[in-house]
Write a structure and sequence with these properties.
56% helix; 11 helices; transmembrane; transmembrane helix; 2 domains
């Protein structure tokens, strides 16, 4: 059985989707007596910064060349078209990481699979980037708290969300319960990924993958386990 709203697999006979909370084929009379399940947030499950960091290092070590090439392509190509390609490429990077974590054959070219979700990826990236930009303009600090909106919304697109606006709304639903932990996670990842600049600058491409990989694990840690709508694409 699949949710008629987000398309995710749900338990047969379920009245609400455990992913997006949408009601499933209930009558108006019975719907009034039902409450959708709460979204899983850091307050309702054990969010661990250490787990995100350790998983990121483990993935980089086990697939080093793939991640370095994928990061190089994502960074260079993402710079074109005023940065508009960053969204689809990051969605593709998360699909690459999903393949690696599920033991599927993977290659750095998987980052281009993000263009299969071009519209929702663009919309989700633009909205979340604008929100983050506004946050930085408001005394700078608010921007740090909402910057996790970008990777989480793109993660949801990579997991099958076909509506960019809905991806941002769902991402905020997961984040609003605890903005602090994801913020600290991204700050730590940013510091770790920039260490390569010490080695003649070019070394950043050896450590920058940690930021991309860590963004995936941060979003996954925040959202919880989700079955991708189409994990092989």
């Amino acid at each position: 059985m699949f949710c008629h709203s987000c398309g995710k697999s749900i338990t047969d006979g379920a009245t609400f989707c455990n992913h997006c909370g949408a009601a499933q084929n209930v009558t108006p009379d019975s719907a009034a007596n039902l409450n959708p399940p709460a979204l899983q947030t850091p307050s309702s499950h054990d969010y661990s910064i250490g787990r995100v960091i350790s998983n990121s290092f483990a993935d980089l070590k086990s697939n080093f060349l793939t991640h370095v090439v994928a990061t190089l392509l994502t960074t260079i190509i993402g710079g074109f078209a005023f940065g508009l390609l960053v969204g689809p490429l990051q969605v593709g990077y998360m699909k690459l990481e999903e393949k690696i974590k599920t033991g599927q054959p993977s290659t750095f070219t998987d980052i281009f699979k993000g263009f299969d979700h071009l519209v929702p990826a663009l919309v989700a990236f633009l909205i979340s980037a604008v929100v983050t930009g506004i946050g930085f303009m408001l005394c700078f600090i608010p921007g740090f708290f909402v910057m996790s909106l970008i990777p989480v919304s793109l993660y949801l697109v990579a997991q099958g969300e076909t509506d960019g606006v809905q991806a941002v709304q769902r991402a905020w639903g997961y984040l609003k319960g605890n903005l602090f932990m994801p913020m600290i996670t991204l700050l730590v990842l940013s510091v770790l990924s920039s260490i390569g600049m010490i080695f003649c600058f070019i070394g950043i491409f050896l450590t920058l993958p940690l930021l991309y990989i860590g963004s995936y694990h941060m979003a996954k840690e925040l959202v919880g386990d989700m079955a991708p709508a189409n994990p092989t694409n």
